[in-house]
């Protein structure tokens, strides 16, 4: 059978773009289908705008705490319109890299429209049908909006609309306390909004080590955020003054919180609806993602899925990683399997929370032997110099002393977690950090602090006796 394309990709987000450019670069005839904006959620409504926004917020936080550094500074006003214009300018500076023109220059046929599977080899795009030997589903994810009484009757914001704000809300309520909620909540608080975060769970950072939650809760409270954890949202409405009222139940008591703006950040859900999955028999997993095997094939072998729609991780870097697996398996005869033992993530709060590999509870559940080592960030000289007082490094090692997991909380955690990632991938022992020469002073030296602790702990009594004899002899 002659096909219009070798590979047709539905979705031009992080996963789809990587598959398209990689496959086209290897000589495949590629089509890329997108119904909204090139670059998907990450460029337009996620990673890029949120981190640009947070930079402004963190600068505001430094200004308001200038007295710590001996600087007399006051944060008088925040011009949110200017902040959001900067956010837009950053997006525009990256847009050319993800543009239709660039991908067409790479040999990719970009088709604007909504793609829907017709059978294992055919996709309908706004009434026209195209055939392809391989089809890749990379449709991403969207904000999950649960059924809460009155929610659909008020004007709420999501990560897709919050960056359209032009005026700083005086009072802001955020539903949820996941990564997006924590980043936006702390960011708006630093800029001057009175923020309330509402979450059903009493614990923050549930996917991270348990030591993270109390530390970050304390930080958010010190930042002036009203944390309503362990609370059930009863009803939401708009009053006669056009304010938003949120009724919550906590510890058996009913409380009403009034706000000018409301952000819904209660998680993400994969975009699996209306793309023809049921028609062609592609199965979903229990979590609602497209079910794939270790090669990222769906229940139809020539149809692959990657990125947020496939799960299990909703991270841009994981979408890119999975896209690389799809390219390998779609084009080459030797197939490759996904390996998630060194998955890393960062929540870009202040301080940042970064993680890679196992968390302690996973090792306990899998009945694996392990040891853990911890060092507070404040013991580090560079951290002291910069008043980076809140945070720690926690490293988990297996029975042989090989690094299998790490959690890092600190101002530079996202930039520093890569060293632990490398250690896991290369199956390095925690004591390997001793031989690394880090510039002084840098916070990376905290890895050596833990390595020295592990080395001393592993020093046997008989070895200590030999050292004593060597030094005591004449």
The structural class is alpha/beta
Binned strand content: 15-25%
Give the end-to-end Cα distance, rounded to a whole number of Å.
87 Å
CATH-level-4 superfamily name of the largest domain: FAD/NAD(P)-binding domain
Q: What's the architecture of the largest domain, going by CATH?
A: 3-Layer(bba) Sandwich
Outline the biggest β-sheet.
7 strands, mixed
Structure in words:
The chain is an alpha/beta fold. The chain has three domains: 141 residues, FAD/NAD(P)-binding domain; 117 residues, FAD/NAD(P)-binding domain, CATH 3.50.50; 114 residues, Enolase-like, domain 1 (2-Layer Sandwich), CATH 3.30.390. The chain has 14 helices and 21 strands. The strands form five sheets. Strands 1, 2, 3, 4, 5, 6 and 16 form a seven-stranded mixed sheet that branches. A five-stranded antiparallel sheet has the order 17-18-21-20-19. The chain has a four-stranded parallel sheet with strand order 10-9-8-14, covered by helices on one side. α7 links the parallel β9 and β10. α1 runs parallel beside α9 and α3 packs across α6. The chain is globular and about 85 Å long. The mean pLDDT is 95.
């Amino acid at each position: 059978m002659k096909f219009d394309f070798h590979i047709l990709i539905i979705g031009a987000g992080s996963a789809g773009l990587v598959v398209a450019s990689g496959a086209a670069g290897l000589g495949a005839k590629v089509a890329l289908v997108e119904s909204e904006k090139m670059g998907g959620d990450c460029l337009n409504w996620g990673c890029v705008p949120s981190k640009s926004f947070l930079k402004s917020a963190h600068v505001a936080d430094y200004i308001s705490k200038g007295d710590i550094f001996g600087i007399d500074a006051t944060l008088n006003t925040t011009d949110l319109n200017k902040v959001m214009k900067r956010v837009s300018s950053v997006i525009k500076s990256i847009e050319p890299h993800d543009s239709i023109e660039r991908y067409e220059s790479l040999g990719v046929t970009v088709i604007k429209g909504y793609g829907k599977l017709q059978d294992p080899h055919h996709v309908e795009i706004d009434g026209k049908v195209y055939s392809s030997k391989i089809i890749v589903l990379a449709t991403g994810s969207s904000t999950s909006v649960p059924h809460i009484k009155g929610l659909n009757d008020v004007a709420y914001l999501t990560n897709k609309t919050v960056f359209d704000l032009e005026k700083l809300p005086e009072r802001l309520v955020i539903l949820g306390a996941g990564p997006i909620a924590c980043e936006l909540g702390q960011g708006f608080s630093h800029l001057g909004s009175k923020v309330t975060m509402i979450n059903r769970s009493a614990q923050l950072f549930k996917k991270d080590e348990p030591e993270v939650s109390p530390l970050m809760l304390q930080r958010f409270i010190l930042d002036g955020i009203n944390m309503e954890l362990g609370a059930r949202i009863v009803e939401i409405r708009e009053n006669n003054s056009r304010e938003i009222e949120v009724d919550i139940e906590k510890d058996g008591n009913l409380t009403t919180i009034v706000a000018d703006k409301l952000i819904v950040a209660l998680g993400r859900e994969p975009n699996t609806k209306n793309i023809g999955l049921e028609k062609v028999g592609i199965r979903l997993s229990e979590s609602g993602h497209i079910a794939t095997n270790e090669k990222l094939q769906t229940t139809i072998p020539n149809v692959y899925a990657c990125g947020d729609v496939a799960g299990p991780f909703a991270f841009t870097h994981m979408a890119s990683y999975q896209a690389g697996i799809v390219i390998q398996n779609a084009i080459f005869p030797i197939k490759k399997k996904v390996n998630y033992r060194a998955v890393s993530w960062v929540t870009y709060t202040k301080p940042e929370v970064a993680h890679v590999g196992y968390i302690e509870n996973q090792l306990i559940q899998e009945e694996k032997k392990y040891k853990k080592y911890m060092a507070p960030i404040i013991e580090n000289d560079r951290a002291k110099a910069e008043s980076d007082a809140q945070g720690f490094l926690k490293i988990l090692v297996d029975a042989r002393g090989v690094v299998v997991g790490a959690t890092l909380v600190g101002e530079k955690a996202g930039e520093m977690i890569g060293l632990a990632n490398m250690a896991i991938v290369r199956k390095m022992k925690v004591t390997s950090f001793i031989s690394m020469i880090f510039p002084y002073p840098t916070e990376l030296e905290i890895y050596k602090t833990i390595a020295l602790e592990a080395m001393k702990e592993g020093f046997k009594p008989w070895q200590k006796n030999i050292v004593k004899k060597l030094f005591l002899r004449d």
